[in-house]
Amino acid sequence: VQRVLVADVYGSDPAGGNALAVAKGLDWLVGKGVKVVSVSLVGPPNPLLARAVKAAQDKGAVIVAAVGNDGPAAPPSYPASYPGVIAVTAVDGRNRALIEAGRALHLDYAAPGADIAATNAAGRRVKVRGTSFATPLVASRVALKWGANLGPKLDAEAIDLGARGPDGTYGRGLLCTICRPAR
């Protein structure tokens, strides 16, 4: 049985989503035994966030993070650019990189992030787009492939897109074609 826990880093605080809130959220999740953490927010490098990510990793957690939606000319995003974090970009229904997809210092995988629908808080199906929606799909594959040799297991599933081999547009390939949400 898999559990899904959510750390609300925004809440009602006008400064919600700041590095301290994210660090506290990571600490709480890892304290609850979460092994795979999906992070669908981005920002500039931050020493507090860097320490929180490293502490979570040191306790065995894998962090999967979106590269953001500020376009390829944007500076690298964090936490996706921290060492050991699985950085995720998004593709559309034709497996083309999203034009708004950001960059990280490294890119690991792509996943569906457009031409998909999700259920909103009111229970209605809505169209969604962005790297934030691709990230939990990759996190789901990480959770299913959990254990030794995680990278090679994911790489074996990844479909190489773009230039042969790892690249800055699709990383090591497309994951989660089997979990593409229905339109």
Describe the model.
The strands form two sheets. The chain has a four-stranded parallel sheet with strand order 1-2-3-4, with helices on both faces. It has a two-stranded antiparallel ribbon with strand order 5-6. It has a single domain (35-179), classed as Rossmann fold, CATH 3.40.50.200. The two termini are 27 Å apart. The longest helix is centred in the last third of the chain and has 14 residues, at 131-144. The chain contains four helices and six strands, in the order αβαβββββαα. By secondary structure, it is of the alpha/beta class.
Give the topology.
Blueprint: H1 19-31, E1 36-39, H2 47-58, E2 62-66, E3 86-91, E4 109-112, E5 116-119, E6 125-128, H3 131-144, H4 150-157
Parallel strand pairs: 1-2, 2-3, 3-4
Antiparallel strand pairs: 5-6
> What fraction of residues sit in β-strands?
5-15%
Please report the number of helical segments: 4
CATH architecture: 3-Layer(aba) Sandwich
Radius of gyration: 15 Å
CATH H level, superfamily name: Peptidase S8/S53 domain
Within the CATH hierarchy, at the fold level, what is the topology? Rossmann fold
Number of domains: 1
Helix content: 25-40%
Poorly predicted ranges: none
Order of helices and strands: HEHEEEEEHH
- Major β-sheet strand ordering: 1-2-3-4
Q: What is the SS-derived class?
A: alpha/beta
Task: Report how far apart the termini are.
Answer: 27 Å
User: What integer is the average pLDDT?
Assistant: 90
Count of β-strands: 6
Biggest beta-sheet profile: 4 strands, parallel
Which shape, going by the Cα principal axes?
A: globular
Question: What is the CATH class name?
Answer: Alpha Beta
